[in-house]
Protein 1
Amino acid sequence: LAKTTQPISMDSYEGQEVNITCSHNNIATNDYITWYQQFPSQGPRFIIQGYKTKVTNEVASLFIPADRKSSTLSLPRVSLSDTAVYYCLVGDKGSSYKLIFGSGTRLLVRP
Amino acid sequence: NAGVTQTPKFQVLKTGQSMTLQCAQDMNHNSMYWYRQDPGMGLRLIYYSASEGTTDKGEVPNGYNVSRLNKREFSLRLESAAPSQTSVYFCASSFQGGDTEAFFGQGTRLTVV
């Protein structure tokens, strides 16, 4: 499994764009990058997944450079309700992939 | 649809007691997971079931046993609870092994005194 490294915490203000970068230097050819969001006292929630270049959905965008050794989750115009922990996961989507979570990035959005 | 349902939501055990945490999903998913989350920490995988009838150890399996009772249900048993097992336990399911979109229950907050 590719090891991931994320910042422990980030602060932002309402209305700003937030970019959280995840480093995964030993990502394998078949690995996908997946991001989850976890609010206090709740289970994690799937946000977005990608393999290369850019993926966008109604919640976020995921940018993956050509070498795929890192990825950036972008949250446009954050609000107080985006305060949460964000996890980056990397795995090959094969039957052996077990959804291993790291420590995540604790995002605090201030008024 | 209820999604993933965990029972109980809260539990206090004395050291040495046993208990079973129940998890059921109604999404016809093949794969199910048990995680624990200690205060301020990330989730750690305890056990995993890729499909009915199969289970596999995760990162922290010691002190736990699991049963994949049927496709819907995946239970986690603590045979002799220890204070170190005080944690929030999350169950999750995904359509199949390797599916990176998993759905989580609301968690069971367990305290062992």
Note: The longest strand of chain A covers residues 84-91.
Protein 2
Amino acid sequence: DVVLTQTPPTLSATIGQSVSISCRSSQSLLHSNGNTYLNWLLQRPGQPPQLLIYLVSRLESGVPNRFSGSGSGTDFTLKISGVEAEDLGVYYCVQSTHALWTFGGGTKLELK
Amino acid sequence: EVQLVESGGGLVQPGRSLKLSCVASGFTFNNYWMTWIRQAPGKGLEWVASITNTGGSTYYPDSVKGRFTISRDNAKSTLYLQMNSLRSEDTATYYCTRVQYSGAFDYWGQGVMVTVSS
């Protein structure tokens, strides 16, 4: 089974700071069709998760462009360029290249 | 506006059954795969079940295979999750989600709580 490892588990940031979250896969997420099915979700406290980024780097409609995704193969990164208060919560990477869906363990972004 | 509204949760004893429903609106339901995802209290996300847009195929992880059944009624724009032989480890908030063409979960319901306890 594919395992997604997110680091760090907790991230402390000040408003305006830029931060990055890593998601490392135990297997390459490049599908034989050429796509890489790696997405990022944000779950704010007390809320259901919301989709931020899909196919590694495509921004979901309505998501601010301070969020960006990058990576390939087994290593992926979510970057927030200038954290805002509404960005606090838990971030999850999720893959669907192999055997349907598996989630990373989450990275909690909190205020320093 | 896309809306997904779950219902049917509650407290149930181990070994018993429960059926969740999710009513969808704001999009053409029969064009999309749908999925149930759960989150145990204070824990991360776990994929539970998925169904193709026609309902012709279903998929489950080993943790629920043989106990849970996902189904849909496209005429009613409703998704279901029949949960049998419930265990304490099934205690979680269950989310109904729409699956985008890319495989991403682009819309989520507010979730429904299921507690398995004697």
Note: Chain A has a mean pLDDT of 96.
Protein 3
Amino acid sequence: GQQLNQSPQSMFIQEGEDVSMNCTSSSIFNTWLWYKQDPGEGPVLLIALYKAGELTSNGRLTAQFGITRKDSFLNISASIPSDVGIYFCAGHSTGTASKLTFGTGTRLQVTL
Amino acid sequence: SQTIHQWPATLVQPVGSPLSLECTVEGTSNPNLYWYRQAAGRGLQLLFYSVGIGQISSEVPQNLSASRPQDRQFILSSKKLLLSDSGFYLCAWSGFAEAFFGQGTRLTVV
């Protein structure tokens, strides 16, 4: 099935550093979502974005809905060890039979 | 509040054996339901989705099938498992856009 381009694929960062990842699509989406998946568990919804240009925060996480509606960004400030996991973006468009399109994932590893 | 239950958590099955994974949702009506598969360290591959009882759409041709016998029940099945069916299977539900996932089933076909 269709997937979004998500980058970077993986990243090693030091504890306390800020993290940025992004997702791009050739299609316009009306909703952007960001998920985090811990090893052996299902993805958990972190942030939902509903309007182009929207900037939303959830604790140390901040996500933005791109103006073109074809991209989204997730930033994590002052990373901590429990931020380790795989982060997925997902896009949703009305009229696509309610399916979400998921990004390929960014694997985040934090070194102490 | 809505909850999603998926079981079993882990499963080891021999090649050629049948499979049945079950997923149920509580606290909502007429949810959209999904089955995803995830290979180790990889992304989410949508296998099936359903917008209502008895309505199943398949995303990729494969050795698996899905059924929705009740509004909040989604079942993933196979008549004869292949080695390539091993993976992490995730059930999810959504209302409009946001999807919420179960805890997953780790299937190992030996």
Note: Residues 15 and 81 of chain B are 5 Å apart (CA to CA).
Protein 4
Amino acid sequence: NAGVTQTPKFQVLKTGQSMTLQCAQDMNHEYMSWYRQDPGMGLRLIHYSVGAGITDQGEVPNGYNVSRSTTEDFPLRLLSAAPSQTSVYFCASSSPDRVGNTIYFGEGSWLTVV
Amino acid sequence: AQSVTQPDIHITVSEGASLELRCNYSYGATPYLFWYVQSPGQGLQLLLKYFSGDTLVQGIKGFEAEFKRSQSSFNLRKPSVHWSDAAEYFCAVGSGGSYIPTFGRGTSLIVHP
């Protein structure tokens, strides 16, 4: 039972480089989202998707791009990495049920931009 | 818009002592409420959730939380803390119309032996 799988777990980028964080879920969840976690800031929503072909911005979308071509995958692209994007990134998926949208998280991707 | 406040950034307790972590939310209707725990270097694990019914919710690892509508609170409690409970705890609020819950900034729990 894989759940939510994120890759890579660790990455170091140079300023200006681009990269893609991969996220896949095998629970057939409609909703997927990306958060970043910074000390003292909790989890802040970057982008989210409520189904294949549908994405929307969260609280801190600038500098990031997403697409949702399949139900399973929700990659996060950093277009031109900046030191301010050094953070821990979490992908999550959920599905509406009678107890609300319980979110299942990946294990995180630690990104350092130098 | 919904919001969550966790007023305590850090909480320090002795092993075996009781614990209460505070969470206050802002939302017009009946919310869905969650507590997640994050151990160092790990992802987030759901401890418990509330959506309706009994206002006292039991979760995993001996945790419980009580929904108090009059106080807009959903505080997390544990009667006796273990050293392995040291972690970051996040409260989150959602709604029937909100696809993605909103998270608080977290409370870091430190457990002294």
Note: The mean pLDDT of chain A is 92.
